[in-house]
Amino acid sequence: MHGxxxxxxxxxxxxxxxxYQRLCSLTGSFLDNSCFCPYRGEWLSIVDQGxxxxxxxxxxxxxxxxxxxxxxxxRRAESRPGFGIIGFSS
Length: 90
Hints:
By secondary structure, the chain is an all-alpha fold. It contains three helices and no strands.
């Protein structure tokens, strides 16, 4: 996605984010994110560590579930050439 022209007024920056989110909602599809909502502080870092090779000790079941959800997102994107994964938080 290529945007612009962009306003030089920093007070307008948030509007580009909302516009991008709206375009994604119109042209993309919602993927299950139940392992990540509601957002919980350091949760993304914990899940990211769970995707690294050679992890020990064994992962907690909720981390495994979240990692599997991420893998499902990647498989979905891979099956649709030209598409990717975009996340928004508010």
